[in-house]
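Researcher: Go.
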Amino acid sequence: MFIFIFISLGGVQSALKTSAASLATNPTLAFIEISLCFGFGLATAIFFSYRISGGALNPAVNFGLLVAGAMDPITMVAYTVSQCIGATAACGAVAAIFPGKFAGANQVFPGITVTQAFFLELILTFGLVITVLFLAVEKSKITFFAPMMIGIYVFIAHLLAIPYTNTSINPARSLGASIITGTWDNHWIFWVAPLCGGAIAGLVYRFYKIVGYETLNAGQDADHVV
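Model: Structure:
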């Protein structure tokens, strides 16, 4: 968790520095740099932690896996506490090591309502957790590629939401940044919305398993024509 958040929010600081001259008029390049750091930082962290914890780096994903029946409550709590500690430590390290004001806190920016921000975070987290469930939890011939696809999804999610909420979809990341910056306005959104999104994804996954979705495309992992 520490490495993922350090790379991601360190990327925020670097992007803001290198794009400072054009940030006010054209922040697109900075947003792309930040999104890349989050997406590929996450993919890398999942790849090297997959055999230790399954690449668990997000409390909303933990909760989604709990609802889906893929994680027990004790593991969920232990992982969530560890993720919050790791994220906070990483945010502190970024604030101490990188020059300039720490800019990683999530917030509802002007131009978007609290309700819009809530559903934006909920839907993006739903997409993240459903991706984890069907690519990483559900074993298939493409499971080995799950970390990269999850990272690509997070990259896209950040491109979508940075201008509106700084993109959370990860309560531990939001908590760590708020502790370091003291920014708590609308902080509840960055817990409740991702957890709701994760829970809905878990329920959708359960539904597909109950109806036997595998029979809809039988033999999809076969080495021969079915």
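Model: The helical segments are 2-18, 28-53, 59-68, 73-97, 114-137, 146-165, 171-181, 189-210.
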